[in-house]
Structure formats: C-alpha cells, structure tokens
Structure prediction request, 91 residues.
Amino acid sequence: MESQHAIQGPQQAGDYAGRDVDCLAALRPSVADLAVSSGETLSAVVRGEISGDFAALVRRAEAAGWKRHEAEAAIRRLARELEGAEGIIFD
Prediction:
C-alpha cells in the first residue's frame, strides 16, 4: 500500500547545507507508514533492495524535486532507524 503523504521538495534547486536533513524530514512520514503497511521488510530496504512501494516513494520524491540518490539514501537511513526502534521495543 503506497503512502500518500505530501512530499515537500528541497528549499532550493541546488545543493545547500542541510539538504540531506530536509530530505529525511520530507520522507519520514511516508517511510513510517510504509514500514507498517507495506509487505516489504525494512531489512531489505536497509540492504539497498528498494522495490515496490518504496520504489514508488523514490519516484514521488523525484517528482517533488529530490535526486534519486538522495531519496534512496534517506529511505535507507529511515528504515535503519525504524528497524532499530523496533528492536529496542521488543528486546
């Protein structure tokens, strides 16, 4: 199930300080939703296997103005954070 949160684009077209943090913030709600609703595992995403709903999220991020590599890196990082949070909860 694809997340439908609006994705905010970068503050400016070129590179700028904090652009990676802005990308994380823009994608965080969608990644959190997909972590719960998607049939894909976070561990696969962490390993760089971005497919299905997560690949659709990359395309939506690109449409919002993010570069593919930025979106993929942010999704992997957020998946790692969520996977770690799940481990803390269940340990």
